[in-house]
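tool=predict chain=A
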Amino acid sequence: MAMQAPFRLGLIADIQYADCEDGTDFSGCEQRHFRNSLNIARNAVECWNAVGVDAVVQLGDVIDGCNAKMNASETALAAVLNVLSRSPAQRFDLIGNHELYNVKRDSMTASGLRCFGPDGLTYYSVHLGDRWEAIFLDPYEISLIGLSQDDSGFLEAQEMMRQHNPNVLTGAKDWFKGLPTSKHRFVPYNGGISPQQLSWLKTALENAEAQARKALIFLHVPLFEAATKAKTVVWNSEEVLQVLHSHSDTVVAVFAGHDHNGGYGVDAAGIHHITMNSPLTAEPGSDCYAVLECHSDGWAHFLPHGRACVESNTDGAGQAYPQLILAKGSKNLPGDSDERSPGADSQDSLAELQAMGFSAERAKEAFEAAGGSMIAAVTILCG
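tool=predict ok
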């Protein structure tokens, strides 16, 4: 029987394009290449078209907030969407903080952004082929940005700041002064997920589980601190992770952006968390996007182009991941090569294959038949 072709996704995060000279973030530490990010988006589309992706996920912050100050939001957004539209694949756009700096929620659809599901909500799920489910979340339902001051989500956000970071409400210039690291997430550029969305997420995962589908979670703000940093995490991430962990056999991975320096980690339930780096901070001449291959046997292969995912908490200077095997029990090392030749390292590879659920005998046969290549071994085992 011929092996079924994987469902392929094109992934990119935090393009943050603006037609202006290079600059830095508010701290002066992060170098930003505003115009070059559009060049990387062009490269991404060319790659996705060559590969033949089935869908594209744009993980939010498609244009930078400085466009609003320059009265250039509409033209900047049109420029990026013009590039992304050159891919014929279905596209899903996520809401990031910079979307909310530039576009009102009720104007997003008219702007060309595709942030809403068929029922008009900003959180929804779709089938990816026969065996996978994409679940899109909105981490700014509870937020200090993008909502009117009488909105329940805004009022709840204010109350969370009173409890966890009153610096935000007092107008302090330094939001983090005297704040323990555990509360660094409680700042306006992050947000929270409502109880209603959490309840919906539970149902969506139950449905995916009942249909024997593996699930991928997409949202702009990371959920797992080890895959990012303390300052870029969803306010009530523990509640969201609790829901995901209750369906850990269904949820394979969580994809986010927001932290331009990226990161990767595996949580206690074995769910992979990928925080993609931003094209905005990539050096001119380099790339920053990925292709995700979703295989019918329940594992996925993250194929980065350029430094699309690097070690967490390295300010973007750590080693890049040349690939990620996303399956229960798989271990991914930065700078690691797929070609793991038999020898001392082969025992670790065999143990990893067994942790993914394959018997010792089958793992050994496949690894040897693959000549020491983990990817080839997984393909044999899942073929």
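The longest strand covers residues 288-294. Residues 344-382 form one domain.
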